[in-house]
């Protein structure tokens, strides 16, 4: 039995992610790869509003924001999928208004869709005062997509399995990122397929967490972290989108501490020393002609959280 609600709607703020490490195991018989990844949430956010609606109106969605273009408004939207799953699992009224204000790039390897699903889960928990534990929210989220549990958790965390088994990691310090965005996204399944093609005939080990990376995070050492960044999907993303190599070169030329394709790309994330360095690299990338836009962020950022209720 649901309690009477104290608010009509809530707004959840959810961060983007970069993968500091992404190691990809062999293709499993279920068609998925076992991965070991280290996520860091960064300060680019989608704001997800969930509100009650008149009985019989069903779930409606509206999308605004810098990166709203091209986001589906039908049932394939991960925010709607999350709302349907939450309604079914917790017996909630199926009439909801969802509003997405998007800042996270779409199909950019930064978990934009997953962030919106995470926002809906955390939002509905708060709106209907369900009192679900974070673990349970992450478990519901993993049914929507592998990156959803981390979007709920935030901070820095290790992801195993499909990246959906999350263990928060010890990390010190704050890190400055410059993100080079592409005008056109890359599809995650096609990048994995290209990775399989490039690795055909090779024997692939079970992925392990990188000890130098974890040590750099524990020490809060940005320089060491820059050196330890690794992404086994990077060659595949660059093979499908050769211009990404040029983007990575600009970062090296301008002294980035490290540069990496984020997840399945095509966003390239550069770790820099400070604000001034971030500004220099932003100008260099913007004038290089090889990126469509450049944004800056810092990490780690908090996971999905309620910022407003009305
Ligand atoms: P990941 O890093 O988790 O692999 P991504 O950041 O590369 O994901 P998304 O932004 O999640 O990619 O979008 C991938 C595809 O999912 C988009 O092309 C879009 O069609 C679809 N999609 C579904 N729901 C959403 C949403 N709420 N926001 C953005 N894209 C969505």
Total number of β-strand segments?
12
Distinct compounds present: adenosine-5'-triphosphate
Distance between the termini: 23 Å
Query: How big is the Rg?
Result: 19 Å
Uncertain stretches: none
SSE order, one letter for each helix or strand: EEEHEHHHEEEHHHEHHEEHEE
Label the structural class: alpha+beta
Description:
It is a single chain. It contains ten helices and twelve strands. With 310 residues, it is of the alpha+beta class. Strands 1, 2, 3, 4, 5, 6, 8 and 12 form an eight-stranded mixed β-sheet that branches. α1 links the parallel β3 (59-64) and β4 (96-101). α1 (78-90) packs parallel to α2. The two termini are 23 Å apart. The relative contact order is 0.20. The model has no long low-confidence stretch (mean pLDDT 95). The site of adenosine-5'-triphosphate has 22 residues, from α1 and α2.
Q: Key features?
A:
10 helices; single chain; four-stranded antiparallel sheet; alpha+beta
Fold blueprint:
Blueprint: E1 9-27, E2 33-52, E3 59-64, H1 78-90, E4 96-101, H2 112-127, H3 134-142, H4 148-153, E5 156-160, E6 165-168, E7 175-181, H5 188-198, H6 211-219, H7 222-228, E8 230-231, H8 234-240, H9 243-253, E9 258-261, E10 268-272, H10 275-288, E11 293-299, E12 305-309
Parallel strand pairs: 1-8, 3-4
Antiparallel strand pairs: 1-2, 1-12, 2-4, 2-5, 5-6, 7-10, 7-11, 9-10
Helix pairs in contact: 1-2, 2-3, 5-8, 6-7
Bound molecules: adenosine-5'-triphosphate.
């Amino acid at each position: 039995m649901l309690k009477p609600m104290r608010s009509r709607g809530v707004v959840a703020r959810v961060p983007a992610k970069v993968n500091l490490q992404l190691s990809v195991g062999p293709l499993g018989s279920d068609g998925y790869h076992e991965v070991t990844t280290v996520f860091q949430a960064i300060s680019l956010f989608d704001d997800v509003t969930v509100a009650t609606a008149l009985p019989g109106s069903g779930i409606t969605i509206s999308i605004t924001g810098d990166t709203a273009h091209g986001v589906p408004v039908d049932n394939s939207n991960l925010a709607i999928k999350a709302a349907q799953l939450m309604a079914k699992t917790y017996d909630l009224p199926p009439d909801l208004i969802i509003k997405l204000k998007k800042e996270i790039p779409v199909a950019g390897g930064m978990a934009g869709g997953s962030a919106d699903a995470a926002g809906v889960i955390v939002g509905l928990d708060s709106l209907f005062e369900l009192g679900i534990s974070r673990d349970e929210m992450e478990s519901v989220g993993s049914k929507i997509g592998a990156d959803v549990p981390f979007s709920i958790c935030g901070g820095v965390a290790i992801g195993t399995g499909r990246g959906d088994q999350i263990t928060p990691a010890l990390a010190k310090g704050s890190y400055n990122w410059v993100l080079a965005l592409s005008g056109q996204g890359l599809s995650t399944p096609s990048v994995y397929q290209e990775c399989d093609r490039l690795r055909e005939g090779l024997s692939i080990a079970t992925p392990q967490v990188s000890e130098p990376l974890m040590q750099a995070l524990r020490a809060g050492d940005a320089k060491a972290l820059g050196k330890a960044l690794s992404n086994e999907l990077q060659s595949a993303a660059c093979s499908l989108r050769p211009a990404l190599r040029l983007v990575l070169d600009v970062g090296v030329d301008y002294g980035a501490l490290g540069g990496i394709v984020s997840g399945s790309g095509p966003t390239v994330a550069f770790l820099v020393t400070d604000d001034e360095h971030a500004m220099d690299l932003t100008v260099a990338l913007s004038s290089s002609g090889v990126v469509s836009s450049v944004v800056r962020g810092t990490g780690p950022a908090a996971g999905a959280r309620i910022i407003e209720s009305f």
